[in-house]
Fold this sequence. Notes:
The chain is an alpha+beta fold.
Amino acid sequence: xxxxxxxxxxxxxxxxxxxxxxxxxxxxxxxxxxxxxxxxxxxxxxxxxxxxxxxxxxxxxxxxxxxxxxxxxxxxxxxxxxxxxxxxxxxxxxxxxxxxxxxxxxxxxxxxxxxxxxxxxxxxxxxxxxxxxxxxxxxxxxxxxxxxxxxxxxxxxxxxxxxxxxxxxxxxxxxxxxxxxxxxxxxxxxxxxxxxxxxxxxxxxxxxxxxxxxxxxxxxxxxxxxxxxxxxxxxxxxxxxxxxxxxxxxxxxxxxxxxxxxxxxxxxxxxxxxxxxxxxxxxxxxxxxxxxxxxxxxxxxxxxxxxxxxxxxxxxxxxxxxxxxxxxxxxxxxxxxxxxxxxxxxxxxxxxxxxxxxxxxxxxxxxxxxxxxxxxxxxxxxxxxxxxxxxxxxxxxxxxxxxxxxxxxxxxxxxxxxxxxxxxxxxxxxxxxxxxxxxxxxxxxxxxxxxxxxxxxxxxxxxxxxxxxxxxxxxxxxxxxxxxxxxxxxxxxxxxxxxxxxxxxxxxxxxxxxxxxxxxxxxxxxxxxxxxxxxxxxxxxxxx
Length: 544
């Protein structure tokens, strides 16, 4: 019969050789196997306890003449310790009782008969039974504590191995593979991970032949409520699978679906704690990978933005001087007396128009670079009349607007607005030029303005083809156009400059489609209280 220390060394050796590739024989699976064969193991332990008691009795009977009663009792106690160490409390109690009865029946006079007639026999029976029960209980408790310690060690080792693997995952696919494999290794289950999309909507898992079907409706309810659902829970308890939300530090990152291979019994409290821990590890890994991807994209975008701004700034500065010279020469040629009679008058006007467009494009690029560099926050504000700003913008686009009927609806009671006149004029020029480019000739273009509470609303509208419904807000991003492939000239900077300027003034800009047809771009500017007029005191001209 192996000793207790040998049994413990065997258990420790078995726990130390648990590896990732051997997790299919993990601790929780042994717990489940123990639960399913509990009755068989109990009967087996009771049978072995009786056999050990009978075996010790038969082995000692030939040595009865050489051993006294104290030595025989010690042999029975040694057997009792072995039974308790191997088969637990129940078998130890049975062994203690059977040992006392066997000792009384065989070794106490009269032999082969139960004798409780004397005080000595009764005292021997009580003391031996008490000592046997105490020793058996202590040994069984020590065995149980050893198994609990080994189970905790194995569970901690498994969690450490899985956390180490998840910490090295660099993609969502790796987290899914490691998470599902880690859960299936220690449970007789099939595990699936359902994850949300970029809009935080849970997506069904693609069908796989090695995975059972799951209820997407239950999974979505689990994800939205952030509470467990399914098998033996308050929500959908009759379901065949258990649905656990992946609760990250910030929000739910998905759903872990666990489908038992067997009869669908409810997991024990120990198994649920381990499952919750595994789900938390997977959620943390998913959140880490998500934020790592966001940080990488942000870094790449910042680097690209910095390089692009540097390139645009240098390119625009190099173009500004020749464009200014070209525009000046076309203006000079158009003012010559002979230009009116020249057959190249139309060509000269075309060159002038294209030079103005390119000069405006260069100015837009420089303005965007300045705004991105933070220079746009230093506004040269002053109290301005919106009517004058609109008139200045219309004069700058006099020739392009000549082919469009212009409708102005400016409230005659418009208050003064505190703004940077050059930048707000640039906003109006960009919006009007945008309307001219995307509307056919002879199509009306209008400007409306009115005061609303503490803000001033300005709208530039047209009756052109309108805006793409799914791109109305994306149009304000840099280098974004309504049509990626379009014959209309432009690089997609005008609207982004408008938004940067308006937001620098503390306002908002938006785009929409008009009910009457066409597009409408409107922006708000905050209205401020006019400062009090400072009146110089008139000198007293009367003599004292």
